[in-house]
């Protein structure tokens, strides 16, 4: 997998190629070459490609791995302060905490819109239980609150609803 430094190098080469195509496009208009409009299109494409490579060189592509985290699926994300993940009903409280931390790490971006009054990303974990045939009930097992001001927030609040774990189905042997 390429790193952000690799994408910065690709951006530099793409930028040089863009300038070459721009110079060729200008020359094609001066000398009235037949391919002048194709060169304008190629220059425009190179500009878009260079911009995309530059964006990839700025944004980190790696994800933090939290040991003990289980699999989760993003169910809801308002793009600002709230997200909900779906987890397995066989999860343990310690796995849930690690999974919530993993989800918060994956979902944190500088582009999230924090409100003035609530500048925290809240990630809630839920599973679906079936108390009787034909009935499905969402069951929230915990939540995590992390500041949107800093990725290195040391005061992450994790709440595990231990009373809700009693409602989970018992694993059969």
UniProtKB/TrEMBL annotation:
Segments crossing the lipid bilayer: 12-31, 43-61
Q: InterPro entries under this entry?
A: Uncharacterised_Ycf51
* Pfam families named in the record: DUF2518
* Keywords (A to Z) from UniProt: Membrane, Transmembrane, Transmembrane helix
The name this protein goes by in its record: DUF2518 family protein
Q: What is the lineage of its organism?
A: Bacteria, Bacillati, Cyanobacteriota, Cyanophyceae, Nostocales
């Amino acid at each position: 997998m390429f790193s952000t430094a690799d994408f910065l190098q690709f951006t530099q080469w793409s930028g040089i190629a863009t300038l070459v195509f721009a110079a060729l496009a200008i020359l094609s208009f001066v000398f009235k070459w037949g391919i002048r409009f194709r060169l304008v299109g190629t220059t425009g494409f190179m500009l878009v490609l260079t911009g995309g490579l530059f964006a990839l060189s700025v944004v980190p592509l790696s994800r933090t791995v939290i040991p003990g985290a289980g699999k989760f699926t993003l169910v809801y994300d308002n793009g600002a302060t709230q997200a909900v993940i779906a987890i397995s009903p066989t999860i343990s409280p310690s796995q849930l905490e690690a999974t919530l931390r993993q989800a918060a790490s994956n979902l944190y971006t500088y582009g999230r819109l924090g409100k003035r009054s609530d500048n925290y990303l809240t990630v809630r974990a839920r599973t679906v239980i079936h108390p009787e045939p034909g009935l499905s009930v969402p069951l929230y097992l915990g939540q995590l609150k992390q500041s949107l001001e800093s990725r290195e927030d040391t005061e992450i609040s994790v709440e595990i609803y231990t009373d809700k774990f009693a409602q989970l189905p018992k694993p059969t042997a």
